[in-house]
């Protein structure tokens, strides 16, 4: 586990998945503890001041569980202490997740029933065709490389149109110029798709410079807010606003 991630936060966020089966609960614990993007979102305040969040490719809704558990920890409702150097977590009041996989969408709904968030909604649909609700932040983690270039631009254009004034788009994408780490991550992603969909898919990644160009082309200004690189991945987290 990342040493900066409070263990009580991981436990609290994953607890809502106990009713969704052993896989859902263990996956939540492993993902929240081991994926540094979740810690970065809180430690760097990447969704600060964003009460309405649209999560594209939401999986089993981990982001909602994570943010609500963070609010409870910060408020002293949940056991554990909030890191003093972290800003306050976002005041999540409305969460909409879009997920194409019916099993993951079902786990998200099961977890959502335990979250206590009045405005919690999971839409089972392709992100290319779903309607996007107006949001203060739109989050797209590890999704765009599963789409072709035209679909990538379509999703980004729809996201721009759905952002409230002053809203932000938070993306994690693979950097195709990332060397061995990127190559290994491509192989792993291909195997995941094969296991889930029983077919091979062509992944469409770009070098960081090209991702930034795609964002400019679809009406955003963007900057790198975090780089997550290692032996098996080469990812960048981008923050974008309507230009």
Describe the structure.
This protein is an alpha/beta fold and 243 residues long. 40% of the residues lie in helices and 23% in strands. It has eight helices and seven strands. It has helices at residues 7-14, 22-34, 36-43, 62-75, 102-112, 149-162, 180-197, 208-217; strands at 52-56, 94-99, 119-124, 135-141, 163-174, 220-230, 233-242. Strands 3-2-1-4-5-7-6 form a seven-stranded mixed sheet, sandwiched between helices. Helix 5 (102-112) links the parallel strand 2 and strand 3. Helix 1 packs antiparallel against helix 2. It is globular, with a radius of gyration of 17 Å. The protein starts with 6 loop residues before the first helix and ends with a strand. The model has no long low-confidence stretch (mean pLDDT 89).
What is the spatial order of strands in the main beta sheet?
A: 3-2-1-4-5-7-6
Q: How many β-strands, per DSSP?
A: 7
In helices, the fraction of residues equals 25-40%
Gross morphology is: globular
Instruction: Give the percentage of residues in beta strands.
Output: 15-25%
- Structural class comes to alpha/beta
CA radius of gyration is 17 Å
Q: Strand count, sense and closure of the main sheet?
A: 7 strands, mixed
| H/E topology pattern | HHHEHEHEEHEHHEE
Count of helical stretches: 8
Unreliable residue stretches: none
Q: Return the average pLDDT rounded to an integer.
A: 89
In whole angstroms, how far apart are the ends?
37 Å
Topology:
Elements: H1 7-14, H2 22-34, H3 36-43, E1 52-56, H4 62-75, E2 94-99, H5 102-112, E3 119-124, E4 135-141, H6 149-162, E5 163-174, H7 180-197, H8 208-217, E6 220-230, E7 233-242
Parallel strand pairs: 1-2, 1-4, 2-3, 4-5
Antiparallel strand pairs: 5-7, 6-7
Helix pairs in contact: 1-2, 1-4
